Amino acid sequence: MTRQVRAFDRSRHTISVGSCAPAPLWEIVPRLTELYPGMAVSSEMQDCGALLDGLHSRAYQLIVMPEPVDDPALLCIQLTEEHLYFSLPPAHPLSSAKVLRFADLDGESMLLLAHIGFWYGRARKNMPQALFLTQDEPAAFDELTRMSALPFFTSDLSLKRDGMPENRVCIPISDPDAHVTYYCVCLSEQHQLLSRLLQHAVQ
C-alpha cells in the first residue's frame, strides 16, 4: 500500500516512462516535456515483464513494448517501427551487399553497446558464434566505432537522428528479428496522456 501511495504522489509531479529500447525515448521524452511543461519527465529501460509490472503498479504512466499487449485494463497503440542495420567499413568483404542476414556476420568480432534493451538479447540469440566486444558506456562505444574497423549495429532511427557514420557502409538486415514495431501502452483510465502524445506526434 505504501508503495502505491508513493507512486501515486510521484505521478502528480512526474511522468515516468519505461521502454524496451532506447530509440522510442528519443522522441517520446521531448514530446512529453513540451506537452506537460509543469511536470518532470523521467525515463528508463527495463525488460518487458518489469515494464508491465511497473505500469500496473503505477511506477510508470507510459511504457513502450516491442509487441502489442492484449489486456482490457490497458490501452495499446502502435507508435513506430525500427529496422536494424550492420555498419561496416568499406573494406569489409560484404560492404557491397544490398541486404544482409544475421548469419552472414555470425562468427565475426563486433562492437556491441550493452544498454540497448531487448535488442541485446536478439543480437546474441541470432549470432551465437559472434564475438561481441561489449561496451557499457555510450561515449566509449562511440569512440571505438570511429577508431575501429569492426562491424557494429545501427538502425534507421539511429541514422535519422545521428546521420551516416563517417567511413562506413550501413546495410539493412533482412531477418524478421531485425525489425520491430513499437507500441505505447498506458492504463485505460489514463488514455488522455497517450491520446495527447500521439496527436502531438502527427502534427
UniProtKB/TrEMBL annotation:
Coiled coil: none annotated. InterPro entries: LysR_subst-bd. Keywords: DNA-binding, Transcription, Transcription regulation. Residues 17-192 form the LysR substrate-binding domain. One of its GO terms (molecular function) is DNA binding. It comes from the Bacteria. GO terms for cellular component: protein-DNA complex. The keyword DNA-binding applies. Belongs to the LysR transcriptional regulatory family. PANTHER family: HTH-TYPE TRANSCRIPTIONAL REGULATOR CYNR, TRANSCRIPTIONAL DUAL REGULATOR HCAR-RELATED. This is LysR family transcriptional regulator. It comes from Candidatus Ventrousia excrementavium.
